[in-house]
Design goal:
165 residues, mainly alpha, Arc Repressor Mutant, subunit A, 3-stranded antiparallel beta sheet, 3 strands, elongated
């Protein structure tokens, strides 16, 4: 049975690696995530370092990023200073975090594009008008994408946040 478990872990890790690489995650993040994914209990920084072979400082940075972007939860037990991490095994949580982060970045970009349009609107040379036209088109496209993300965030497909369905 141990061989079967090892094979299953390898298959899942291989496919998670491909998926996570598409989202820009590096091999360190993937290895730490998979350690949490297969762990039967929450792990502290030292346990993650021991399991993955990375330094505690690398684990600390990586685990905090995983908490921000995927279904990893960080917590402390009452009266303890030690942080623990656990995989929640919940794709909705990961998708909410990912879409939420992307939406924030798009909203920032829309703001910068609007400011840029404002700076360029009084110019009358052809080059500035050309660039301004590209900026306006891009802003409108990102505003549409933001509306799509807003709809996705409210749909039950990825949950509305807070519940673990």
């Amino acid at each position: 049975m141990q061989e079967t478990i090892r094979e299953v872990k390898g298959d899942i890790t291989e496919h998670y690696t491909k998926l996570f690489e598409e989202f820009g995650m590096n091999p360190t993040m993937i290895k730490v995530y998979m350690s949490l994914f297969f762990s039967k209990e929450p792990l502290g920084l030292q346990e993650l370092a021991d399991d993955t072979g990375y330094s505690v400082s690398t684990i600390c940075q990586t685990a905090d990023l995983l908490e921000k972007y995927v279904d990893v939860r960080k917590f402390k037990n009452p009266g303890s200073k030690k942080s623990y991490y656990e995989c929640q095994h919940d794709i909705k949580t990961a998708m909410r975090k990912k879409f939420g982060g992307m939406r924030e970045m798009m909203q920032d970009l829309v703001r910068v594009l609007k400011e840029s349009e404002e700076k360029l609107k009084t110019a009358d040379d052809e080059e500035t008008k050309r660039i301004s036209g590209h900026i306006t088109k891009l802003r409108k496209d990102y505003e549409k994408a933001d509306k799509l993300f807003a709809i996705l965030m409210t749909m039950n497909i990825i949950g509305k946040g807070g519940e673990n369905e």
